Structures are given as structure tokens and as C-alpha cells.
Amino acid sequence: MDSIKSQINSGAKWTSISTLVITLLQIGQFIILGNLMSAKEFGMIGMLTTITIFAQIFVELGLGAAVIQKHHATARQLSTLFWINILLGILICLFMQAASPIIADYFQTKELEGKIRLLSILFLIAPIGQQSQYLMQRDLSFQLLGKVETISTIFSFSLLIGLLFLTKQNPVNVYVWSQVSLYSLKGILYYICYLPKWKPSFVLDIKDCKEFFSFGIYQLLSRLVNRLGSNIDMLLIGRFIGMEALGLYNLVYQIVTIPVLKLNPIITRVAFPVFAKDKNNNQALETGYLHMTQLLAIVSFPLLLGLYSVSDLVIPLFFGEQWIEAIPILQIMIIVGILRVLMNPNGSIILAKGKANIAFYWDLGVLVCYGAALLAAVRSNQLEIVAWAYVGVSILNFIGGRMLLTRMIGLQLKSYVKVLLLPFILAGVSSGIALLLKDQMISIYNNLVWAFIWPVLVSGISYLLLLHVLKKLEVREEYL
Q1: Domain spans, the chain
Q2: Which of the residue ranges 43-57, 70-84, 391-405, 448-462 would you say has the lowest mean pLDDT?
Q3: In degrees rounded to 5, what are phi and psi of residue 272?
Q4: Which one of 88, 167, 202, 204 is most buried, counting C-beta atoms within 10 A?
């Protein structure tokens, strides 16, 4: 049990450094684009991001998780999987080129067509490093993974800034070029970094990889329906309410997900390969899962509850008055953010146990519920109703997820509540301080900058001090 904790903490240390740098750059990129783009253009960014997510799932084919979960893969099998990824990348590129007019017509946005074709280029290059990335993850080489991702993100961000301010190109096109450079460079660097340990040979033995496909097909289908469930809001809003409404929604979605769901992989990415090594010890898995949940809660709760406290300042201060309509949607979606943080670790346990089929059927059920609720909600043409529908189904998904883990690893409700209660109370107290202080600062300074800085600073320090004091009193160890 202590071994799982130490491996999670060690991997998380290296992953957190790179994630911090990447998150800060992405927030900076996001703020810059939000100030330069119209709501319609920001909606197009959301749509292009969604397309990229789905295309990546098909290129990966669920084989990455199979490589991590099955430690006995031979060099022949790995080479076969490598060439399958390359071929799939070529097919996805050709498909996106051919389907771009159909996708653009679906969203009634002709400008998407050329941008989808440009985006497809990345799938010719990125797959070269996909197998190496998962092998490094399996080997717990998180320091090396972090360096690759940090270098690639810095290069991509620099290219974005350079093209935005040194050329007259459309900001959406600039964003697409930055994404092509990001994924392509990552693929190349992953491949180069793992060459000393493994080099693919010219082998394509499909029969020898049957066990990977049997695991991978469920992981593929599970990820497909999971991502469809996560992005069906984008697909339906873009189609039925319009690209401008999607722009508002995408802004809110990014504000909630960039800082928080970038923090989740610090833990969950490390946890899957660690859990997979101890997959038959349910007690160790439960302890590791609770430890992972504790870390996520300590970091995520103050961020999200604090964001709620200053949400009416964040939008106008960082993105401008033109985005004011997004404030009530942001406040609702913070609930979704909290639930997604808590649901995210489930997949690490399910896959570590080798139950990719359960993940698929679970995600399929969630997709049906999300799809039905959101399809009804978009008919109202009101984004707030769409957001509340998302909250309702997320609550049901969260409750069901806890019940599933109780059956799989014997997760105790009392233990689960115990690790969440104190972080939630401390985050609530510090966020309450921010809320009260914000109103005082507005009346004193009548300035958005100071009204934002002081509450964030004071509430953040308050949260850290409370954690420190409780640790000294050994209360934190008791309740967390």
C-alpha cells in the first residue's frame, strides 16, 4: 500500500512540474485568443478541438492502455502495433480531408472546411511517437515524458504568439498551425527519446497481437463513447443553437477545464500503470484510490470554489465585457467541474483491473443519458438550461460510479467521504473569505484588478495556512 502511494507521489512530482508549465502557457494562450476572437471564432476553436479528440481516439485504437496493462509485450508485437498506429494516422488524415465539407455543412459553418483539412496534417506525423509514449508511461518514465511535453508546448505557444503578432493571419488558422506543431513535435520527440530502449522493426503480424486487440477494442469503444458523452454538448450546441452560442459555452468550458482537468492527469496518468502492477490486491487499490482522490480534492476544490467566488470578475477582467453573458453559465458549470474531478480516477481502477468491457458499457449508458438530456435542453435555445442538464446527469453518473467501485474493489462510502470532507470544508471557508472580501474591495477601490487580486491572494493564503495548521495538529492525517 505504501509502495503504491510512493510511486504515485514520485510520478506525480515530475508530471506536476511539466503540467504546471503547460497549464500556465495554455491559460495564457486561452486569454490571448479570447481577447482577439469573436464568439463565432471561439466556437470554431471548440469544434476543431472536438474533432481532434475523436480523431486521436481512432488513431490510438485503445492499444496504448493494452500496452501499459500487459507488461509481457514482445518486440514483434510492439512493432506491429507501431505500424498499425502509422497506418491509422494516414487513414484518419485522408478521411478528414474527404469529410471536411460534410462536417462544415453539419455545423452550417463553411469556414470550418479548410481548417479541418489543415488540422488533418498532424495525423501524418504524431502517430510516430505514440507507441513510445505509452512504453515510457508503462516504465514510469514520467520525468522524460514531462520534458517532451513541456518543450513541445513551449514551441507551440511561441509559434502561436509569433504568427498572431507578426503576421496578419486569421487567429483560428494560427491556432490550427500551433496544434499541428504541438502534436507533431511531441510525436517526434517521444520516438527519439525511446529509441535507446526500443526501435520498431518492419513487422506486421496481426495474429500475434490478438490479446491486445481484445483489450483494446473495448478501450477504443469505451473512450469513443466517453468522449462522445463529454463532447456531445459541443456537437449539439454548435448544430442547434449556433456557433456564437458554442463560442460562449466553449469559453466557459475552457475556464473550468484548463486549470482543473490539467491537474487530474498529474495523478491519474501515474496511477494507471502503478495500479496495474498491483491489480489483484483490492485493499492496496482502495488505499491508492483514496490517496489519489485526496490529492485531487486538496488541489481542485479551492480552485473551483474560489473560481465561483470571483467568476463575475474573471470574465470581464481577462476576456472583456463582450463575454459577460458567459458568467451565469460559468457558475453552473463549476458544479460539473467538481464532479468530473471526482469521477476522473475511476478509469484508472477499471482499466488496471483489466475490465475495459465494463468501462465501455458504463460509458455507453452515460452517453445515452447525456445525449437524451442535452438533446432536450438545446431545444430551449438557452445555454443555462443546457448547463443545468449537464449538472443533473453528472450527479447521476457520480453516484453510479461510487457504487461500481464498491463492487470492484470494496470502496467504503465512509472512507470516501472522510477523504473529501475536510478539503471541501477548508475550500468552502477560503472561498467564503474571497466572496466577502471581493465585495469590500469593489466598494473601496472600484477597480476590477484589485477586487480580483486581494480576494484570491488572501483566500489562497488562508487555505494553505489552514492545511498547514491542521497538519501540525495531526488532524489532517486523521481526516484525510
Answers
A1: 2-479
A2: 70-84
A3: -55, -55
A4: 88
Contact criterion met (CB below 8 Å) for 178 and 115: no
3-state secondary structure of 474: coil
Cell of residue 475, nine digits: 488532524
Using alpha carbons, select from 406, 395, 400 the residue that is nearest to residue 362: 400
φ/ψ (deg, to 5) at 412 = -90, 130
Alpha helices by DSSP H, listed for 379-447, are 383-409, 413-445
Distance (Å, whole) CA 384 – CA 329: 6
202 pLDDT above the threshold of 70? yes
Please say whether the beta carbons of 247 and 40 come within 8 A: yes
Listed in sequence order, the DSSP H helices in 241-281 are 243-261, 264-276
Interatomic CA distance for residues 173 and 114, integer angstroms = 9
Using CA atoms, how far apart are residues 37 and 167, in angstroms rounded to an integer? Answer: 16
The pLDDT of residue 334 is above 70: yes
C-alpha cell at 3: 509502495
Mean pLDDT over 16-20 rounds to: 74
- Comparing 34-38, 85-89, 305-309, 347-351, the range with the smallest average pLDDT is 347-351
Q: What whole-number distance in Å separates Cα of residue 204 and Cα of residue 76? A: 8
Q: CA 432 to CA 458: how far, in whole Å?
A: 11
Count the Cβ atoms, other than its own, within 10 Å of residue 312: 18
H or E stretch covering 147 = helix 142-166
How far, in whole angstroms, is CA 327 from its chain's centroid? 22
| DSSP three-state, residue 458 | helix
pLDDT at 88 over 60: yes
Nearest to 27 by CA among 261, 198, 228: 261
Sequential DSSP letters for 153-215: HHHHHHHHHHHHHHS---HHHHHHHHHHHHHHHHHHHHHHHHTTT----S---SGGGHHHHHH
Distance CA 136, CA 113 (A): 36
Report the C-alpha gap between 239 and 233 in whole angstroms: 10
**CA-closest candidate to residue 312, choices 294, 297, 300, 330:** 330
Amino acid, single-letter form, for residue 149: E
Q: Please tell me the distance from the alpha carbon of residue 14 to that of residue 388, in angstroms, as a whole number.
A: 37
In DSSP notation, 403-422 reads HHHHHHH---HHHHHHHHHH
8 Å CB contact between 292 and 12: no
The whole-angstrom separation of Cα 434 and Cα 451 is 10
Q: Do 306 and 331 touch, CB atoms closer than 8 A?
A: no
Phi, psi of 353 (to 5 degrees): -80, 0
